[in-house]
């Protein structure tokens, strides 16, 4: 059984994330969405809120499981018995950082492969950071995130 782990902070989960997850679900027997604690990034939503939003947004996608983690990614990958770490590449600017991460993960866990997927063109420019900034300034983010995320963002006070 081929299992892919798609890790991230998902603060919040965007339509770009959802697109990658839906496509990965066609390629793998199981896709685990690993929601990272990442307190260092100063997330807008708590870990529990991010897991809850991901569960709601992805409820209709078969073969997907949402899990939270606060450990080294390769350790979490082994815990999940995942074969692949799935990462998204939106632009060339993402590549250098993701390439470094993939190399380090390969060094730490040579049995785990890293696979990159690119989002559909209409989602290539969407990032959680931009969505949060637009929402904090009163902009409309409804074309970038699920309606439940719009609702959650509208209920959150900017930091």
Question: What do you see in this structure?
Answer:
The chain is of the alpha/beta class and 159 residues long. The chain has one domain: HUPs (Rossmann fold). Helices cover 42% and strands 18% of the residues. The chain is globular, with a radius of gyration of 15 Å. The relative contact order is 0.21. The mean pLDDT is 93. Keywords: ATP-binding, Coenzyme A biosynthesis, Cytoplasm, Magnesium, Nucleotide-binding, Nucleotidyltransferase, Transferase.
Give the key terms.
159 residues; alpha/beta; Rossmann fold; five-stranded parallel beta sheet
How many beta-strand elements? 5
Order of helices and strands: EHEHEHEHEHH
Per DSSP, the total helix count is 6
CATH superfamily: HUPs
Q: Please bin the fraction of helical residues.
A: 40-55%
Classified by CATH, the class is: Alpha Beta
Biggest sheet character: 5 strands, parallel
Please, how many domains?
Answer: 1
Our Rg estimate from Cα atoms comes to: 15 Å
Estimate the strand proportion. Answer: 15-25%
- Which whole number gives the mean pLDDT? 93
Strand order of the largest sheet: 3-2-1-4-5
Q: Quickly give the CATH architecture.
A: 3-Layer(aba) Sandwich
Shape: globular
Low-pLDDT stretches: none
Give the distance, in angstroms, between the N- and C-terminal Cα atoms.
42 Å
Query: Structural class of the helices, strands and pairings?
Result: alpha/beta
Question: Can you tell me the CATH topology?
Answer: Rossmann fold
Main location: cytoplasm
Domain Cytidyltransferase-like: 5-133
Catalytic activity: (R)-4'-phosphopantetheine + ATP + H(+) = 3'-dephospho-CoA + diphosphate
Subunit structure: Homohexamer.
